[in-house]
Amino acid sequence: MAIVPELKRKTCTYNFHREPLTSLIELSNLVTGSNQKVFVDQYGDLLTLLKMVVDPMPLQTLLQFYDPELRCFTFQDYQLAPTLEEYSILMNVPIRYQVPFLDVPKEVDFRVVARAHYLSIKEVSDNWKSSGNVVGLPLKYLVRMAKEEAKKGNWEAFNAQLAIMIYGILLFPSMPNFVDFAAVTIFLGGNPVPTFLADTYYAIHSRHGTKGCINYNPVLSLRQLGFVMNVRPLDVEIAESVYFEKRSDPARLEQVGRAWKTIGVKDGAVLGKKFAIAIPAYIDWVRNRVETLLLPYDRMESLQVQPPLILSESVPAEHYMQALMENRRMKEKEQDTQMELYKAKADKLNFAHQLKGMQGEDASRLKSKKRSYEEIETLLNEEHRECLRLQKAEANYQKKIRDLEKQLKDKDV
């Protein structure tokens, strides 16, 4: 009997363009010693991103699973979606409770731009150029100025100039070898994560340029963040609500800006206890979605790890139930610990940035803040050790279960 081949959707090709980063990497090699810590504390892990090697093939494969209607990557029995929290940790930059970058100002304030670059107003205005349909500063000029600051030992100015170049060439590129006004504006705002995430979604969704607004659906990220997906999401939670090019609809762009002023933050108390298990109702919904969307490649056996099979009638009931409940308690404790670790890391990150704005405070307040920082460090280390202890204890229980199974088999033989 002939086997009917499985229907698949067509794959598409994405082109990945990356500017040569040789000049920026050479500058980053000058950031050493105590100045490296200063740079990271002020601008995050931009130097790590600068030197990261990207393999386009895994990205090409991942993008074939993009689900444009749901704004996520839909696989055969689960979904993934980039989130603000993940990007914040990746960049080591906090998400500020403020309106993110929406558009460049209509007029260029050379005083503000010059202050950000540690340059004179005349230097900025004389070198301010246009490239394509954007304005800004040529990379060649900024590299030359940064090298001069490094020779003088003016590391505060050097760090700012290098960070702006990374924003304009790596994070928010517009034209080759050019740092445009939009990148400078994002840098000045100090809240790049929402824009970075939006650029990711918009570029994947439109398959070209990144100058637009788009929504994503955080409800689809609950499982990957460790929460339970009890039922399928409501239609209103996964409907397309925003997708347009910025210049095409200025009125709606203002509406998006107003919406950012009323953002609500939900924590674990609202979302429920962390326990990353797959509820059949959600899994069935994902599989039904796959039947409609189709997959770009052949299906594979599920990679979900199944719990060890223990026949309760072959094992003393009290041993079986004790091991089962203890295993469940350890998993819950581990998930709680991981959540506390994430919160502690986020608090530490936010606090580190708050320290920078404390100029003018008296010494006693600074000392108190430093003590709080050290307490967070201590808590983080303790929670990490507790997480490792729980993982080891879980492995020991799994070994006991396997030993018990072996004893029962030997007894049967």
From TrEMBL:
Parts of the chain that traverse the membrane: none
Keyword annotations: Coiled coil
Name assigned to this protein: DUF7745 domain-containing protein
Record-annotated DUF7745 domain positions: 24-208, 209-291
Domain of life: Eukaryota
Coiled-coil residues: 366-410
